[in-house]
Design goal:
Elements (H helix, E strand, L loop, with lengths): L5 H17 L4 H18 L14 E4 L5 H10 L40 H14 L6 E6 L6 H12 L5 E7 L2 E2 L2 E2 H4 L5 H7 L3 E6 L3 H8 L9 E6 L23 H13 L1
Parallel strand pairs: 1-2, 2-3, 3-7, 6-7
Antiparallel strand pairs: 4-5
Length: 269
């Protein structure tokens, strides 16, 4: 496994700032998402951080809302709000809650907390763009464990039926749920074939390889089908003791020593 480049370390450092401020958070899910969101915000999505509701903007929905610290890191990095606010994460008077809220956080398109809802919202946005004859791209990032929800497959059925070619689903497939391996909870493989059966063009990439992510997300589409990108990731990536460790899915209490260990592990990554 290759080490992280400086941008990936910087973004994880911003995430740790939020973990320190809130003294809690979903570490594993946050770290597996960083490169996916990095490529989307750096290279794929059209947006204006000074006008977050610009009608022409592309839409990103983080359906696995518990990974919101990664989203907050990118939004701060892109200037949607001051980076200093990351240190207020989960505080009583903060806009940055434990799940993202569109009514509070600039750049958040939909509130997501209860899993399985984001793709349905994204399908609605993609269909609305078609009706309004707009070119907006809609990207929905879901978790692998989230695919256990039936509402995901109802939305996928609608997307395939209506051939929503402006919709991309990215699956953060890190192989672990909150209490164990995904395959032990509910077997998902062959996941690409499942989406293809619903009418999607399916692609699989290393979810921490920026070039691979760019290659598929920036590629010209060859059909009018919706697209799914199955991004194979490592839960906790960049924090050696948290990688593939379900006990780091979420921590309800992080002390200063924990934060120091997280920062040192990131330096060594």
């Amino acid at each position: 496994m290759t080490g992280l480049d400086e941008r990936s370390k910087l973004l994880r450092g911003l995430a740790i700032d939020a973990l320190e401020g809130g003294e809690r958070g979903h570490i594993g899910s946050t770290m597996s998402l960083i490169e996916i969101l990095r490529v989307l915000f750096d290279s794929v999505l059209f947006f204006d951080s000074n006008n977050p509701v610009l009608p022409e903007r592309d839409r990103l929905i983080l359906s696995k809302g518990h990974g919101c610290i990664a989203l907050y890191a990118l939004l701060a990095d892109k200037g949607f709000f001051p980076a200093e606010l990351l240190g207020t994460f989960c505080r009583f008077d903060s806009i940055l809650g434990g799940h993202p809220e569109s009514s509070h956080v600039p750049g958040v398109e939909a509130p997501t907390g209860s899993l399985g809802h984001g793709l349905s919202v994204g399908v609605g946005m993609a269909f609305a763009a078609r009706i309004l004859d707009r070119k907006n791209k809609v990207v929905v990032v879901v978790g692998d464990g989230e695919l256990d929800e039936g509402s995901i497959w109802e939305a996928a059925l609608a997307a395939g039926h209506h051939r929503l070619g402006n919709l991309t689903v990215v699956v953060d497939f890190n192989g672990l749920q909150s209490y164990g391996p995904v395959e032990d909870v509910w077997r998902l493989e062959p996941i690409a074939a499942k989406f293809e059966a619903f009418g999607f063009d399916a692609h699989e990439v290393d979810g921490h390889d920026v070039d691979q992510l760019k290659g598929v997300l920036l590629a010209d589409k060859v059909s009018s089908n919706p697209r799914v990108v199955i991004a194979r990731t490592i839960k906790g990536r960049g924090i050696s003791f948290a990688e593939n460790n379900p006990s780091w899915h979420h921590k309800a209490k992080l002390n200063p020593d924990d934060i120091a260990e997280l920062r040192q592990a990131l330096l060594d990554a």
